[in-house]
Amino acid sequence: MPDIRDFILKNLSLESAPGLPEIVLYRAHAGSRLSRLGDTPPYWAYHWAGGTVLARYVLDHPEIVRGKSLIDLGSGSGVVGIAAMKAGAKVVTAIDIDPYATAATLLNAQANGVNLTAFTGGLTSSPQADLVLAGDVFYDPVLAEKMSGFFSECVAAGIEVLVGDMGRKPLPIERLEPLAQYEVPDFGQAQMLKAKVFSFKGKWSQTP
């Protein structure tokens, strides 16, 4: 397997993030040779609607993150955490299960002139943070159930949770309160679609 950092620098292009002209990211293109990285899908190399709207919302409403410690969960490219740092967050910890995502997050943060912490792994209990930001984590039913349980623990511990998603089927809509909607592209496509930012609620609601 090639050196992670070296591969990203040599094979991806540093470009403005779709819908986020304030941020640049190392992004995939036709000659990126991502197949060399093995069987793990390189989700971190593409823009996703949920992460994009969450980053846009944070940049548009900096008071949400200003002076706070937060987690960017399922960070991918790190775009949400980078947006939070640009908006005045005190500390950002970006977490992803893919080591390439961790490397990309650190490189992207450096390219944007912000400092954050990034590590590869997962969380099994509510973190020491004021806020959890999670874009596009409800794409799989099993993962969605785990995320719902984890977010419930966070809310019970007094940690606010904001979710960005384009409305995928596993989304637990009965647990979510919509805060904003934007039209953005999803997963490397140019076509615009509607995606929302939600606040995750600690209790079940009968009205989505």
Automatic annotation (TrEMBL):
The keyword DNA-binding does not apply. It comes from the Bacteria. Keywords: Methyltransferase, Transferase. Pfam families: PrmA (PF06325). GO terms for biological process: methylation. The keyword Protein transport does not apply. InterPro entries: Ribosomal_L11_MeTrfase_PrmA, SAM-dependent_MTases_sf. Gene3D superfamilies: Vaccinia Virus protein VP39. GO terms for molecular function: protein-lysine N-methyltransferase activity. CDD domains: AdoMet_MTases. Coiled coil: none annotated. This is Predicted nicotinamide N-methyase.
